[in-house]
Amino acid sequence: MRTEIFAAASFITRLLRAAGGIGAEQLQCFRECLQEVLHEYYKNHWFPQVPSKGSGYRCVRIDHQIDPLIVKAAGMIGLSNESLFQLLPSELTVWVDPFEVSYRIGEDGSICVLYESPQPGGKPTKPLESRNSCTEEWRIGRASPSKSYNMMTVSS
């Protein structure tokens, strides 16, 4: 669970970093706070034997509201909801599941995999999607003002 949470928190932190205006120390603190918040929230909702069980519960979402878990971590470094709305995409979904972390920007965007690992005793996983195709789909399907983001892929 820690690896998947680290991948999700690092991705959201990179989105904030790309938007600019937040110092490296604050970003590191945000990532660590978000990891703690997610770990606490997911600890009784993590089922490696049935990875899809509880997936909706582990979905981090920004649409007309910022996910309360992101708000909580941001509050720990003094970022307001208004700042988050300016810095993050207006529509973002991050799924944090056992063995896979994926995201989608915009309601019609492609789902891109940030982290994927084989399930113990399972079949090998499919290769990760091309970062370029995810980047292009991201730009085409964006629901936020155009910003330049660097994509990150984490693998084990």
From TrEMBL:
PROSITE patterns, alphabetized: BTG_2
GO cellular component: cytoplasm; nucleus
Superkingdom of this protein's organism: Eukaryota
GO biological process, one term: negative regulation of cell population proliferation
UniProt-listed SMART domains: btg1 (SM00099)
Segments traversing the membrane: none
Name of a matching Pfam family: BTG
Gene3D superfamilies on file: Anti-proliferative protein, N-terminal domain
Anti-proliferative protein domain ranges (all copies): 88-107
Family assignment from sequence similarity: Belongs to the BTG family.
Protein name: BTG1 protein
Originating species: Thinocorus orbignyianus
Taxonomic path: Eukaryota, Metazoa, Chordata, Craniata, Vertebrata
Gene this chain is encoded by: Btg1_1
